[in-house]
Amino acid sequence: MMYLPQILFAIVLLASIGYFARNVSKLRRNITLGHDVDVSDNTSQRWKNMAMIALGQSKMVKRPIAGALHVIVYVGFVVINIEVLEIIIDGLAGTHRIFSPIGATYGVLIGIFEILAVLVFVAVVVFWLRRNTLKLKRFWANEMKGWPKDDANYILYFEMVLMGLFLTMNATDLEFQAMNSGNVISQFIAPWFSSFSESSIHIIERSAWWLHIVGILIFLNYLYFSKHLHILLAFPNTYYGRIKPQGQFENLEAVTSEVKMMMDPDADPYAAPEAGAEDEVPAKFGASDVQDLSWVNLLSAYTCTECGRCTSECPANQTGKKLSPRKIMMDTRDRLVEVGKNIDANNGEFKDDGKQLLDDYITKEELWACTSCNACVEACPVSIDPLNIIMQMRQYLVMEQSAAPMELNNMMTNIENNGAPWPYNQMDRLNWKNEA
Amino acid sequence: MSEQLNVPTMAEFMAAGKKPEVLFWVGCAGSFDDRAKKITKAFVKLLHRSKVEFAVLGTEESCTGDPAKRAGNEFLFQMQAVTNIEVLNAYEIKKIVTACPHCFNTIKNEYPGLGGSYEVMHHTQFLKSLLDEGRLTIEGGQFKGKRITFHDPCYLGRGNGVYEAPRELIRKLDAELVEMKSCKSRGLCCGAGGAQMFKDAEPGDKEVNIARTEQAIDVKPEIIAAGCPFCNTMMTDGVKNKEREADIAVMDIAELIANAQDL
Ligand code: SF4
Ligand code: SF4
């Protein structure tokens, strides 16, 4: 009987880590449904980006208020989690505050945790008020109805409860209070329980301790279903994010080989393709579904925080068009999750479900409204490139379906025939020099 | 502006066995659009004034393929790119200057992967370098003390991180440079990029160029300075729509410098 709490703890811990691991492997599987891209270049710049943007939150603070609040929650989250290490050891070994013998340092650490816990609590309350009472446009857009809105609030409630439990746990820990070191905040909460008997206080302490750690494990497993996956994926995503100038769009290699063939007067159109060349020709140009996108695009879809900074900077969205770069990312994730479930249900094989990312999630109207201005890319705090997905989908529309708007088809015909997007003769290109 | 300009072509240089210092890539707008042609001419005058030996491709120039690529037609883009690169490489071009940020971006960033590597400059960068070398002088002239706001072209600013060259040129005019609410890396698009120039906008409650023009009008400029022929068109239309063409002019930076010297 003596070991019952420890056994129980071990079971809870293993079960939640196991479930988390299972979901991580699904995540991996889903992300690698995307086609491969070479990201082996610029390693040092990539590490730098990750350090600056993910660890250093450099893009977050471009909006000072939200940025500062976020930094508090982020630092609090990371630092307070050091305490989780102690909790896990205590839980498994049946000890109580195993690190406390280290003396004064322990007091300092817990003191810092307690102060951070209060700051996080306050920041989270402000976040909640901003999100729910201030009616900031980016939190009330169409794509934020239902689950995305609830998801954002759930996490805020979660954080409030966890911080409350952490402080309660310290306040009702009579031994810890007796140490009188590090209880900078909890010493003011402890008196609330002074009328309770010692054994009830102990029960409260144990309950808070258990609820706190179980809460953290639930939080860990909630991530997979939430926009809060960004707390993990922001790191790889900023590492693999765009390195080249934003204006530079990649050249499709499959097209290059075909163009070279067409332009080469000596090329034999009936010649057998070179060995290996076949793998290079994709089944289709551009993207109509998530499997056609790159794995970096898919990683980004899971990383998106749904903050809407991209959408609030988007010229198309600002002027009332349907396009919202945030929705592009959310749709990509939703479709990817759907495809993943389909694969799970069909023994590891995707079975055509008659749906795709194009039309069923993202409409042509949205795609054609983009000015390719890169404002969304610039605004994103976690290095997501929604424009890249938009362009791949346009490529599909134009090269596979010839479904460009009529005016664009005219423009392209002009380029083909006259070397200019307007119907002027190439031979007249220098006429301006003689015009008054 | 009635005298005929001396605009040598690469073919002429080649025939004379000479090489120019720089190739001026005029671009489709600069060649055909009535408003943009004025920018082209202003820039040519500045090149002459600075004694820059330059050449154009003339009838051998063709669309870079930018609008086709942004519309999703990678085939057409690469066909255009490969054709242009053949011409440029045949003339052994090393350095290119252009007054169009779209041509600038495409040739600078997207041609190297297809076999065309050149030093490419936007005309504001080139003018700035001429200024630094003492080959070009800038006077305030009629623009002294005028309130000027600069609209960042997406493919110059965010696309390639060029924010300062155009601004330094404006400051040299002794003008009062005022910044719009969204500027530099957060500059609002004029609405023309991504092939939007060639089609009607999707349904919405406003045109992008009107939104941008309103931001400009908010800072009470006498002149909206542009560095892109497409932005220029969009902002000019915006100013007309707001019926402010009497007191707000939309001008390219090359025009400002050339006009200040009555070129
Ligand atoms: S690139 Fe397209 S989606 Fe992104 S902000 Fe500009 S118009 Fe909007
Ligand atoms: S793409 Fe980036 S900026 Fe846009 S909502 Fe997602 S995280 Fe925010």
Oligomer: heterodimer
Number of strands of chain A: 0
Please summarize the sheet with the most strands of chain B: 4 strands, parallel
Number of domains of chain B: 2
Q: How many H/I helices of chain A?
A: 19
Q: Name the structural class of chain B.
A: alpha/beta
Order of strands across the main sheet of chain B: 2-1-3-4
CATH A-level architecture of the largest domain in chain B: 3-Layer(aba) Sandwich
**Global morphology of chain B:** globular
Provide the structure class of chain A: mainly alpha
Q: Spans of chain B of 5+ residues with little confidence (pLDDT < 50)?
A: none
How far is the first residue's CA from the last residue's CA of chain B?
8 Å
* H-E order of chain B: HEHHEHHEHEHEHEHEHEH
Rg of chain A, nearest Å: 28 Å
The CATH class of the largest domain in chain B is identified as Alpha Beta
Question: Looking at CATH, which topology of the largest domain in chain B would you report?
Answer: Rossmann fold
- Helix content range of the residues of chain B, please? 40-55%
Whole-number radius of gyration of chain B? 18 Å
Number of strands of chain B: 8
Can you tell me the overall shape of chain A? elongated
- Which runs of chain A of at least 5 residues are low in confidence (pLDDT < 50)? none
